[in-house]
Write the C-alpha cells for this entry.
Amino acid sequence: QLQLQESGSGLVKPSQTLSLNCAVSGGSISSGGYSWSWIRQPPGKGLEWIGYMYHSGSTHYNPSLKSRVTISVDRSKNQFSLKLTSVTAADTAVYYCARTGDFWTGYCFDYWGQGTLVTVSS
Amino acid sequence: QSALTQPPSASGSPGQSVTISCTGTSSDVGGYDYVSWYQQHPGKAPKLIIYEVSKRPSGVPDRFSGSKSGNTASLTVSGLQAEDEDDYYCSSYAGSNNLVFGGGTKLTVL
C-alpha cells in the first residue's frame, strides 16, 4: 500500500522560505505513469493545486504560484520536496502531498499524505 | 486559471439522492474527460471517489456516481447516509499540464 508522509517546519516567518518534504513508501517515486503533487488548503477554505513533478523529473506549477515555487526530487530517499519563497500570511495552510495520475492514469490525486499545517507568522 | 464553480452547500434527507455540480469552461471540464471528485472529512486528507468523470476506485460504494455535460460535471450521491456528510471537491485537468480544483461543497444530511 502506497503511503505518503509530509514533514518540515510548521512555522515560517514572513518573507522567508517554506520547505517541506514528502516521503513515499510502498512504491517507487520513479515509477512511470504518475507524477507527484503538492496541494494546499488554507484554514476553512478550499484546495489549491501548487504543482507537480513528473516521474521523469520535469515540473509543472500553478501559474499563480510559479514565480515562488520549486518542486524537486531526492530519488535516493524516495522523496520529493517543496520550496515556496517570500511567504506571507496568505500562505498559511495545510500542505498535502499526493500521487497524481497523468494522461494514461486519469490526472487524479489517488494517494494523499495526512497533511501538515504550516503557519506564516513572525 | 480560475477555480471551478461548486455550490457552497447541498443537503438531503437519509435515503434521498443529492447532486453536486462543478462548472468550468471548455478549457478544463468541457475540454477533457479528466474530472475527479474528492470527499473530505474535517481534519482529514481528501479521498478520491470518482475519476475520469464517472469511474469509481476500488472500495468506493456505487452510491457515488459521476457524469458530465458540456462544461459542467456532476456528482450524485444516492441513498444518502449520515456518514456522507462531508465536504466534496471536484478537480479537472486544465490543459498545459495544469490542474484546478472547485471551491468545495458542504453536504449536509438532514
In short: The two ends of chain A are 39 Å apart (CA to CA). Chain A touches chain B at residues 37, 39, 46-49, 52, 60, 62-64, 96, 100-101, 106-110, 112-115 (CB under 8 Å).
